[in-house]
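Sync notes, pocket subgroup
Present: LS, DG
LS reminded everyone that the earlier model was apo-only. Rerun requested with pyridoxal-5'-phosphate included. Inputs:
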Amino acid sequence: MSSNKTVGLSTRMIHSGRNPSNQLGAVNPPIHRASTIVLNRAEDLYKDGVRTYGIGGMQVHDELKNALCALEDANHCLITESGLLACTLPIFALVGAGEHILLPDNVYSPTRRYCDRSLKRAGGSVSYYDPTIGEGIADLIQDNTRLIMIESPGSLTFELPDIRAIVAAAKARGVATALDNCWGSGVYLRPLDLGVDISILATTKYAGGHSDTLSGALLLNDANLANKLAEASADLGLCTSPEDASIVLRGLRTMTTRLKVHEKAGLEIAEWLQTRPEVSQVLHPALPDNPYHKLWKRDFTGSAGLFTFELKPSSKQDVLNFLNSFELFGLGFSYGGYESLVMNCDPQLVYRDKNNLKFDGPLIRLSIGLEDVEDLKADLEKAFATLPQ
Ligand SMILES: Cc1ncc(COP(=O)(O)O)c(C=O)c1O
């Protein structure tokens, strides 16, 4: 089964990307560790479509691509060694010397760093846009703009762009669009259905789900664009290990089920935080009073377990005491794993345009894992108790 829309997404994720009759009856595809592949016939050495070297991927890579295509109903999939590489590969492939890219001001900061450093060194140029710009993006598109990156929501401050308006403006000028879909994970947001050309996944996060792999994926319908990305990947010699491919494929089997728990627990904790006197606001688009709630309802079918809240103004030491007091929440940067994480994220806003930021207090980002919600609340409560009353 690949992309059979007549069955639900959970069913598809269980039954895509494996074929026991080709796997000695084993439920899951095998892990082949291979560089050299020996062929039976000399005629096959230079024949198109014959697997001749491990760098092109083995059975487990093929099956992972099938399952990822089924996730977002995509025709083409590339897998990468990290989510960051899934963000930077389209830029490497599509934006060259004398060409231009538009990035949202809230873009994942290593993507920003790639453009400011490597893209500029290669002769490309970059402009940043306010993620809430909507159709106003049309005024920023230049004749040499080749790619518009979108991120929804921003992974620290949770702005939602108007994806449809940005895509319409890009299409009117023949510019490609790529959307960092790490939060929606292909489950709660399907960018290709909204006309986006490239959906970017850090499968490190909810697909992997266990904080033990680094991996990414690019999903597309356009064969020409997919070919350009595949050529760039081949030029660079990129290849994901079969173990990582297998880990991500295993994670996909339970991702929709896990996300329901992340979603429910995340919302319950977000709502509870709104009642806390120490908190000035909660940045979670599924909350009805969130300024992006309408857009979220229009484009998303659910919410991940990652969100941020703003503490009332506090000293640096108060924030450190707060963070150091957690027992269940780990102090860490990532998300999407089974374990809950906490960090202060406002130090990462140094790159942002200050006009787009209106925060008086420190920002705390939570990734809600699969623990019991009451235990997570108790851990948060203990941390709040460290703050001066
Ligand atoms: C929004 C976003 N995009 C991309 C990435 C990159 O993923 P990876 O950690 O797999 O490189 C991350 C990682 O935190 C992220 O938060």
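DG: Residues 242-274 form the longest helix (33 residues).
LS: The radius of gyration is 22 Å.
Action: DG to write up.
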